[in-house]
Each structure stands twice: as structure tokens, then as C-alpha cells.
Design a protein that fits this description.
Layout: E1 4-5, H1 8-28, E2 34-40, H2 44-60, E3 63-69, H3 75-86, E4 93-96, H4 106-112, H5 124-132, H6 140-151, E5 160-164, H7 171-178, E6 188-192, H8 199-203, E7 208-211, E8 229-232, E9 236-239, E10 247-250, H9 255-258, E11 264-265, H10 273-292
Parallel strand pairs: 1-11, 2-3, 2-4, 5-6, 5-7, 7-8, 8-11
Antiparallel strand pairs: 9-10
The structure holds NADP nicotinamide-adenine-dinucleotide phosphate.
NADP nicotinamide-adenine-dinucleotide phosphate (NAP) binds at residues 141, 165-167, 169-171, 193-195, 199, 212-215, 233-236, 272-273, 276.
Length: 296
């Protein structure tokens, strides 16, 4: 069996086209969704993510503002800025790019964002709503994984989903999302981590395997069963003397070997990655709908 490639680029493109149409209708009714992104410091990867978020807003017609603050910004100044945007009706979503510099308490910052503008889905109110299955802003990467599965015809309903990794941004939320009694979910979920006994034995039981560990090419062909659907969340830069830059990106899955056994697999790059920003746009549009009572 050679796997179908689940293209995040294609799914993201389709979703963005749908959103563009929706936003244009909203604009016709005088509603422009707005997103402010706050970046503190000079982290190179964060700079790229923030730029891409701004570009995605421009592409879709979402009002966007990027605030860049120096690395030395005191916590109190950032909190005051969040208060300002909480009260600014032009912006439906507020995103503070993580990680933050050491002097700033991440939890305090995330707690300060109005949960109704928390389009990253990290505020404890939204996390709690996600766990009980109430309407909320779902964290973007896990929500993107669910969309990828459903839109590629791999509905998790009734399937055994094994998740490798239990972080608060990927592993735990995707487990909570897929176990819900809801369309696009209803999965039986197992979560593995560094203390799991016989991880390969469990991963071999997966109908759908989600790898989110940050360990390059960890999942080998003998760790999956024939016909598995694989979602590779990992983004790891490894040395590659044959590449122009001397490095290249790989996932947490040994793609070339595992694709020979899988029914479907996401590539890295071009799989989960493009979905994350697309889901941020979706959450921002959703927030605008709620704020303006738009039922369109
Ligand atoms: N494409 C995207 O948009 C996107 C978004 C977010 C993250 N990512 C990528 O996804 C990967 C995971 O990110 P994260 O933030 O979730 O990572 P993280 O916070 O470092 O968590 C990694 C998880 O994997 C587990 N783990 C690590 N090594 C293991 C091993 N050898 N055996 C078993 N379990 C192991 C850890 O277990 P313990 O809990 O026991 O330590 C932890 O639960 C990274 O490569 C990251 O770059 C991609």
C-alpha cells in the first residue's frame, strides 16, 4: 500500500477560499473581522510566524495590526496593552505570540486576554469549554488536525486514535477534541508520552496515529499497522549536507518508510503547518460573528 498524501496546503487553500467569500459578505454588512498580534522580543521563528499571520489576514481581508515590543518589555506594560485591545471593538481577536521573555509570566498574560477575543484558544475558560464540549475557540493546531482528518475523508468516528505527546498546545487538546460526542470526533483515544510503557505496542494499535513529540523521524514503519492514517505534527530541523542551506525540515515520522504501510499521511512541510494559521483566521472570523451577532 502506498499512502495518499493529505495536503494541508490544499485543505488550507479551500478553507481560505470559503472564508474569503464569507468575509466579503460580512464586509457588505459593515463588519470587518480584526486581529491584533503582539510580539515581544526578537525570536527568529516567532518573527516568521507573526509575518505569516499578517499576510494571511491581508489575503482574506481581515483587519490586522502587529505590535512589536522590545525583549526588555516589563510584564505590566504588556498587560496594559492587552487591556487596551480587550476594549478596542475594531479587534475581534488578540494573539500574544509565544514564547515570551523570562520576565513575563505567560499564564498571567494568557489569563488577561478577554476569553471572547482569545482566538488562540489558550485561556483557561476556553480550555475548560473545550473539555466539556461547549462552544469555544479551539487551539489552532489541534483544530487544524481535526479539519484535515475530516476533509480528507478520514473521519475519526469510532476509530482508535493514538496520540504521541501530551503537551498543552497539541497532545492534550487534540485528545480532548477527538474524544467529544460530536461530529468529526467520537474517537477512542490513547495518549502516549515519555513515561508510557510499550509505546510501539500502542502505536501499532492505532487506526489514526498523531505524532506530536518533537523527535525527528521517531515513528518507524514497524511502529504502525497496515492501513494506518498518520498525522505528523512534528517540525524538526536536521542537518542535510545535500540541501542548499545545509539543513532541512522533517517531522516526527520516518515519512518514506511509513508511507509504504499507511493508507494516508501528512507530509512535513505542507501538512499540519498550513492549517494552524488557517484555523486562527477561522477563529477570528467566528469571533467577529459573535461580537456583531452575524448569522449570515
Ligand atoms: N505544525 C504546527 O503548526 C505545529 C504546532 C505546534 C507544535 N508543532 C511541532 O510539534 C512537535 C511537538 O510540539 P509540542 O509543543 O507539543 O512539544 P512538547 O511540548 O515538547 O511536548 C512533547 C511531548 O512529546 C513527548 N515525548 C518527547 N519525546 C518522547 C519520547 N522519546 N517518547 C515518548 N514521548 C516523548 C513528551 O513527553 P513528556 O510529557 O513525558 O515529557 C511531551 O508530552 C514539535 O516538533 C513542534 O515543533 C507543530
Amino acid at each position: 500500500m502506498v499512502a495518499d498524501i493529505i495536503s494541508g496546503n490544499e485543505v488550507a487553500k479551500a478553507m481560505r477560499a470559503e472564508m474569503k467569500e464569507e468575509i466579503s459578505k460580512m464586509k457588505g454588512a459593515g463588519i470587518t473581522p480584526g486581529l491584533v498580534v503582539i510580539l515581544v522580543g526578537e525570536d527568529a521563528a516567532s518573527q516568521v510566524y507573526v509575518r505569516k499571520k499578517g499576510e494571511a489576514c491581508d489575503e482574506l481581508g481581515i483587519l490586522s495590526e502587529t505590535v512589536r515590543l522590545p525583549e526588555s518589555t516589563p510584564e505590566e506594560e504588556l498587560l496594559k496593552l492587552i487591556d487596551k485591545y480587550n476594549a478596542d471593538a475594531r479587534f475581534d481577536g488578540i494573539l500574544v505570540q509565544l514564547p515570551l521573555p523570562k520576565q513575563i509570566n505567560e499564564e498571567k498574560v494568557l489569563m488577561r486576554i478577554d476569553p471572547g477575543k482569545d482566538v488562540d484558544g489558550f485561556h483557561p475558560v476556553n480550555v475548560g469549554k473545550m473539555v466539556v464540549g461547549a462552544d469555544s475557540y479551539l487551539p489552532c493546531t489541534p483544530a487544524g488536525i481535526q479539519e484535515l482528518l475530516v476533509r480528507s475523508g478520514n473521519d475519526p468516528k469510532g476509530k482508535h486514535v493514538v496520540i504521541l505527546g501530551r503537551s498543552n498546545i497539541v497532545g492534550k487538546p487534540i485528545a480532548n477534541i477527538l474524544v467529544q460526542k460530536a461530529a468529526g470526533a467520537n474517537a477512542t483515544v490513547t495518549v502516549c508520552h515519555s513515561r508510557t510503557e510499550d509505546l510501539p505496542g500502542l502505536s501499532r494499535q492505532a487506526d489514526i496515529l498523531v505524532a506530536a513529540m518533537g523527535v525527528p523521524k521517531f515513528v518507524k514503519a514497524d511502529m504502525v499497522k497496515d492501513g494506518v492514517v498518520v498525522v505528523d505534527v512534528g517540525v524538526n530541523r536536521i542537518d542535510d549536507p545535500t540541501a542548499k542551506k545545509g539543513t532541512r525540515l522533517v517531522g516526527d515520522v520516518d515519512f518514506d518508510a511509513v508511507k509504504e504501510k499507511a493508507k494516508a499521511i501528512t507530509p512535513v512541510p505542507g501538512g499540519v503547518g498550513p492549517m494552524t494559521i488557517t484555523m486562527l483566521m477561522k477563529n477570528t472570523v467566528q469571533a467577529a460573528k459573535v461580537h456583531h451577532g452575524w448569522t449570515g
